[in-house]
């Protein structure tokens, strides 16, 4: 069995529990995991080559396999891995879809893999999005027959959609389904919307290999990264087999491995509530996690939990370690109590033994990094306000221009105002001309991007002035990785890191705030965070960095779990309003934004709902009742 090829047990975290019906391995990072998967594929290709046999690979597209393909390309270029004996069958293609459309899976596969390796063109099979409706049925039958003519797939690489689809086998698909055309689920189209610049542009149909075709593969590896996959991964691995979650059919396949990163695994029972399935090593973090969970389960504030509550819910081991519920409850209650502070920059002249921040220096230099030009106020507007009010030197650094999220109509409005004010401007004339003639898939011209970026700059300055920050402390970094004009961004380079390092080195901050949010739909927050981590690594040896503490907030999409929070900054009802008004300055992101995702609430509503929910969670645990709370976790570098 190929599974034994790669020692996933040693490489990742693998444990079988009674809840799990599919072999799965968890890795700290998707990169590390992707390298191992690529290695498994490379081994298979080489073994088949030695046997003088074709290696038949089923391939997937989407964000999940990108690093696997990157590594295969690297192995081809640097280690001589040859694809001469490789035959590939892709899972799916939108329908209808032209091959040269940049959204096509045909384009994707060539861009990420085929153009960079020595595979023979005639060995590449991707469902043809241009087959006529009359020929489609026969075309699909022939696709399966061709796979069978090679003796089936040796290896199938899969991603998983939030609907539980594999390939484009949406809920309702039959276990024996063959390659066919299918209507895409709304959630799938919403997930694809950013790439197509809006859900209305996403095709409604696709051609997909069937479940039956996939299940015939000799070996299957499914990749899932990120928090947005956590729920469906749990349902697939732990739930009952059901056509409503087609990926559950993989429970019946005897050589499947799910390769997960920490976030995608976070809802699995063995990860989320390990005390229910095994004896635990009780770290402080795990204790808090368990007690917060128990309080939610029993609907009781922490101080009312009893020995029986602990014993009935898999935590007798913890109780034995701690003595009694009484002692454990007080300890956990105090831990949470100590996270609350109205002094996020530290309280001057106060004993800071049990406070999240140091009291000294009383006036701190602070940089708030905001990936897009609005995350600062959306995610930490209340804390931002306190930091300014409490006299710290606050700098705001907008990491990207955010230009792709400004609509054409909004840009046209500004360009037209600009021509009226400045009749000699040929630049605004050309912008107006471009915008009026722009078709759906055109990438904005550099001038249009500049205008869109400027719109977001002025909105940001409106907000920072309202918050009381002098303009010279507002920094627009326009990190180059973002400036592709499309949703797909470039890779981080030294140019990005240098910009980050220069600012940090100039300000020499005592505190840095940054978005630790890894769940934004386009990945920009993650890249921005990586740029900070890399900058911190490079600057680490400077003595001022010894005094620099980093606090991570989460963006508009997701909040820290209560047990993860290390600083909770409460807000009064008036501060909630002030934060709302600051968010309103970002007019281009109001009243329906370009990249709405599947949450139709405006950003200010999301922010208020979330801050209110965090306050309620604290209150339900038995802590004081606040109107709203913003939450932070410290990052130790
Ligand atoms: C792609 C495919 C889909 C994706 C799934 C996850 O060929 O068949 O099933 O694997 O939608 O997409 P990402 O990886 O973008 O999250």
Automatic annotation (TrEMBL):
EC number: 3.5.99.6
Keywords: Hydrolase
Domain Glucosamine/galactosamine-6-phosphate isomerase: 31-257
Gene Ontology MF terms: glucosamine-6-phosphate deaminase activity
Enzyme superclass (EC): hydrolase
SUPFAM superfamilies tied to this protein: LmbE-like, NagB/RpiA/CoA transferase-like
Any Pfam family: Glucosamine_iso
UniProt keyword annotation of Transmembrane present: no
Alphabetized PANTHER family for the sequence: GLUCOSAMINE-6-PHOSPHATE DEAMINASE-LIKE PROTEIN BT_0258-RELATED (PTHR42892), GLUCOSAMINE-6-PHOSPHATE ISOMERASE (PTHR42892:SF1)
Protein name: Glucosamine-6-phosphate deaminase
Organism: Flavobacterium plantiphilum
């Amino acid at each position: 069995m190929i599974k034994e090829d790669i020692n996933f047990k040693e490489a990742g975290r693998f444990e079988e529990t009674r809840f799990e019906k599919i072999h799965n391995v968890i890795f700290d990072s998707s990169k590390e995991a992707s390298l191992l998967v690529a290695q498994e594929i490379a081994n298979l290709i080489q073994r088949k080559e030695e046997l003088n046999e074709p290696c038949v690979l089923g391939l997937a597209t989407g964000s999940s396999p990108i690093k696997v393909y990157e590594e295969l390309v690297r192995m081809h270029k640097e280690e001589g891995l040859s694809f001469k004996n490789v035959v590939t069958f892709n899972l799916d293609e939108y329908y209808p879809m032209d091959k040269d459309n940049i959204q096509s899976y045909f384009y994707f596969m060539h861009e990420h893999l085929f153009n960079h390796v020595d595979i023979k063109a005639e060995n590449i099979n991707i469902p043809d999005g241009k087959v006529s409706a009359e020929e489609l049925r026969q075309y699909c039958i022939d696709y399966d027959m061709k796979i069978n003519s090679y003796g089936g797939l040796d290896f199938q690489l899969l991603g998983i959609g939030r609907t539980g689809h594999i390939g484009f086998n949406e809920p309702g698909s039959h276990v024996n389904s063959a390659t066919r055309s299918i209507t895409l689920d709304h959630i799938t189209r919403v997930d694809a919307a950013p790439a197509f610049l809006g859900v209305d542009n996403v095709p409604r149909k696709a051609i997909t290999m069937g479940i039956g075709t996939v299940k015939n593969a000799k070996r299957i590896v499914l990749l899932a990264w990120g928090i947005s996959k956590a729920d469906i991964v749990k349902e697939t691995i732990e739930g009952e087999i059901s056509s409503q979650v087609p990926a559950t059919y993989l429970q019946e396949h005897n050589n499947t491995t799910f390769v997960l990163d920490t976030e995608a695994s976070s809802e699995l029972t063995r990860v989320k509530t390990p005390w229910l399935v095994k004896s635990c090593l009780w770290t402080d973090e795990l204790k808090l996690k368990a007690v917060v969970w128990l309080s939610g389960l029993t609907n009781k504030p922490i101080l009312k939990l009893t020995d029986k509550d602990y014993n009935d819910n898999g935590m007798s081991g913890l109780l034995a370690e701690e003595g009694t519920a009484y002692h454990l409850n007080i300890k956990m209650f105090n831990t949470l109590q100590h996270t609350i502070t109205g002094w996020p920059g530290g309280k001057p002249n106060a004993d800071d033994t049990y406070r999240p921040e140091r009291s000294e220096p009383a006036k701190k230099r602070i940089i708030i990094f905001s990936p897009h030009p609005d995350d600062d106020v959306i995610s930490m507007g209340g804390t931002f306000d306190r930091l300014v009010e409490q006299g710290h030197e606050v700098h705001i650094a907008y990491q990207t221009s955010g230009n792709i999220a400004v609509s054409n109509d909004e840009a046209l409005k500004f360009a037209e105002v600009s021509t009226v004010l400045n009749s000699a401007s040929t630049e605004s004339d050309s912008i107006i001309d471009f915008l009026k003639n722009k078709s759906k898939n055109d990438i904005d011209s550099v001038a249009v991007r500049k205008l869109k970026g400027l719109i977001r700059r002025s909105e940001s300055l409106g907000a920072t002035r309202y918050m009381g920050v002098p303009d010279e402390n507002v920094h627009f970094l326009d990190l180059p990785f973002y400036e592709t004009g499309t949703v797909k961004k470039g890779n981080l380079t030294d140019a990005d890191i240098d910009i980050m390092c220069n600012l940090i080195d100039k300000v020499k901050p005592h505190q840095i705030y940054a978005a630790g949010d890894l769940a934004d739909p386009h990945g920009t927050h993650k890249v921005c965070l990586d740029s900070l981590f890399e900058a911190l690594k490079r600057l680490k040896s400077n003595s001022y960095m010894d005094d620099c503490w980093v606090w991570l907030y989460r963006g508009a999409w997701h909040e820290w779990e209560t047990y993860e929070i290390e600083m909770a900054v409460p807000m009064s009802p008036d501060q909630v309003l002030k934060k709302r008004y600051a968010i309103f300055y970002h007019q281009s992101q109001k009243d329906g934004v370009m990249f709405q995702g599947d949450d139709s609430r405006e950003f200010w509503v999301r922010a208020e709902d979330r801050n209110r929910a965090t306050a309620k969670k604290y209150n339900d645990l038995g802590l004081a009742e606040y109107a709203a709370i913003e939450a932070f976790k410290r990052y130790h570098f």
